[in-house]
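Feature request disguised as a bug: please show the residue count (194) next to Prepilin type IV endopeptidase peptidase domain-containing protein in the output. Example input:
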Amino acid sequence: VNWLNVDGFQIKNNDYKIEIFSVGSWLWSALSLQPMEGTIFALIAGILFAISWIDFKTYQIPLLLIIVSSIVAIFGVLFKLTSLKSAIYGVIVGSIIPLALIGLTYLITKRQGMGFGDIQLGFVLGVWLGPVRMALTLFGASLLSLVVWLILSGIKGFERDRALPFAPYLAIAGLGTFVGSVYFPSLFHYLILY
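Example output, currently without the count:
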C-alpha cells in the first residue's frame, strides 16, 4: 500500500511495519488455523493494519481497502467458514445498527460520532466475524477508544470535541475477538447460546 496516497499521506517505501505485522499474522494463522481460514485471517489482518494506520494519520479509510477486504471476507462465506445467515446478521450488527445510532445521535446532538468509513469497516468485520463476535468487537472498540480518550484528556486537558479515529480500535478489537474465539471457543459458544 506504499503507492496509496490519502490527502498527501503516503506510507514510506522503507517503512516495514505492515510487512512485519503481516508476516506475524501469516505465521500465527499457519500455526493455529486451517489453511483457508488462516489465509483469510492473514489477509484481513494485514488490510486492517493498513486501514488503521491510514485512518490514524488522515481520519479516512480508503475505499479500495474496504473493497478488497470485503472480497476476502466474502470468500469466507463462499468457503463456508462463515454461514450466509451469520454474515447477514454480522452486517446488521456491524453496519446497520451503528448507522441507525449515528442517525439518531445526529438528530439529537447535530454531531456525527463515527464516519461512514467506520460503517463500511463494520460491514467487512460483520461478514467475517458474524453477529456475536461483531457485537463484542463494537463493545471492545468503544471501550478501548473511551479509555484512550480519557487518557488523552488527562494528559492534554479535557476537550469535549476531541476526535479519535475509530478504525484502529475496531481493528484491534476485531482481531482480538477473533484470536480469543480461537483460544476460548467454549466461551463464544456459550455467548451464542445465551
